[in-house]
């Protein structure tokens, strides 16, 4: 498996891996220069022409913009609408996409000790391609990373492996968290073994140890992205979605993950402290919510009564804020208090996020941090 830089891709040159050159992926809780988002408009993902979702995205962007610069990429036909709705200090740029999941279609940023910023350009196949993918085509999504590299004038490492940003979490000190359900799924990279995938992650992201959780959240349509189940909140500390209801399928998934985490050590040899965040709900799609979505043969069906993979772990860590989804009035305050205790130097902002969840993800899924080199 070969990795090329954007410059070398034209000639077939094979430079050293990012890690060999000194690049690494920082933790999300490390300082940022910016946050990148995309504007929702796809009618088979977002109900009622995406108007309710757009309002939720505006609230997320506004909250993060208290902490750092926010860029929102917009298709040309929605540019004026987005510019009017978003605050003036949020930067709106024309950046065409097939849908609005910047975590997965955007770049994974890398930093170098000498102050350089670079990015990884993974392959993207809409979470499974023609074997369970969520929509077709995804041609505009695949160009987003190249365009952002051009905008920022940074090196782009082309990694010939299908991987979405929501499938990985790092602690910035050599440890990566992921799930077997996603990264080893036959609809992503069927020819790669676990050992080969692990080597590629280390070479690309500058990590030294991969902790594999078995599965992602129950009915997560991304095939088990880790960012909906568990994430690093500090070196040696992990937040994990949890339910005490043994009859809920999520209980067994969280219990499996807890066993792995409690028996693991990170790249520095530390045992992990696991903080349990309550699961909202369970949450299901309402009749009125399903009726507002265009039903197309090539898109993921969203039916009344379908359970959604709601999780409070799907939050964004900004420089001075943590932006969390509000999903369940019975659990929101408890989750907010737990997150505030985990991030005492940041202000936790809750944003009504059911409209984002109806599209299949949440706040972490629609954001991508640009680290400060």
Automatic annotation (TrEMBL):
Single GO biological process annotation from the record: putrescine biosynthetic process
Keywords recorded for this protein, A-Z: Hydrolase
Molecular function per GO: agmatine deiminase activity; protein-arginine deiminase activity
Region (Disordered): 1-20
Keyword Hydrolase in annotation: yes
Record-annotated active site: 365 (amidino-cysteine intermediate)
Annotated catalysed reactions: agmatine + H2O = N-carbamoylputrescine + NH4(+)
Annotated Polar residues bias: 1-14
SUPFAM superfamilies referenced in this protein's UniProt entry, alphabetically: Pentein
EC number: 3.5.3.12
Origin superkingdom: Bacteria
InterPro entries with a match to the protein in the record: Agmatine_deiminase, Peptidyl-Arg-deiminase_porph
Record-stated family: Belongs to the agmatine deiminase family.
Alphabetical list of HAMAP family matching this protein: Agmatine_deimin
Protein name: Putative agmatine deiminase
Gene from which this protein is expressed: aguA
């Amino acid at each position: 498996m070969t990795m090329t830089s954007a410059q070398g891709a034209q000639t077939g040159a094979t430079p050293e891996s990012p890690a060999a050159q000194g690049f690494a992926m920082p933790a999300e809780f490390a300082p940022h220069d910016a946050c990148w988002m995309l504007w929702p408009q796809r009618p088979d993902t977002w109900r009622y022409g995406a108007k309710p979702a757009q309002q939720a995205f505006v609230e997320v962007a506004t909250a993060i913009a208290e902490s750092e610069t926010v860029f929102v990429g917009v298709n040309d036909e929605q540019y004026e609408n987005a510019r009017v709705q978003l605050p003036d200090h949020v930067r709106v740029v024309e950046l065409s996409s097939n849908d609005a999941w910047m975590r997965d279609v955007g770049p994974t940023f890398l930093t170098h000790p000498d102050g350089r910023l670079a990015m990884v350009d993974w392959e993207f196949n809409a979470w499974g391609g023609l074997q369970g993918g969520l929509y077709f085509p995804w041609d505009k999504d695949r160009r987003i990373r190249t365009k952002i590299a051009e905008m920022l004038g940074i090196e782009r490492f082309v990694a010939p492996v299908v991987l979405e940003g929501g499938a990985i979490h790092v602690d910035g000190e050599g440890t990566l968290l992921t799930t077997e359900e996603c990264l080893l799924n036959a609809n992503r990279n069927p020819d790669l073994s676990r050992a080969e995938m692990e080597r590629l992650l280390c070479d690309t992201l500058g990590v030294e140890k991969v902790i594999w959780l078995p599965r992602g959240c129950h009915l997560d349509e991304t095939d088990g992205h880790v960012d909906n189940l568990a994430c690093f909140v500090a070196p040696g500390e992990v937040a994990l979605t949890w339910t005490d209801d043994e009859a809920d399928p999520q209980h067994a998934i969280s219990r499996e993950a807890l066993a792995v985490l409690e028996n693991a050590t990170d790249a520095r040899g530390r045992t992990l402290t696991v903080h349990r965040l309550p699961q909202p709900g369970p949450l299901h799609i309402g009749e009125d919510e399903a009726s507002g979505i265009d039903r197309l043969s090539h898109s993921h069906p969203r039916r009344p009564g379908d359970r959604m993979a709601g999780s409070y772990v799907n939050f964004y860590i900004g420089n001075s804020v943590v932006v969390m989804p509000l999903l369940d009035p019975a659990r929101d305050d408890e989750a907010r208090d737990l997150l505030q205790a985990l991030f005492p130097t940041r202000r936790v902002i809750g944003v009504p996020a059911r409209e984002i969840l109806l599209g299949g993800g949440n706040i972490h899924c629609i954001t991508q941090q640009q680290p400060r080199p």
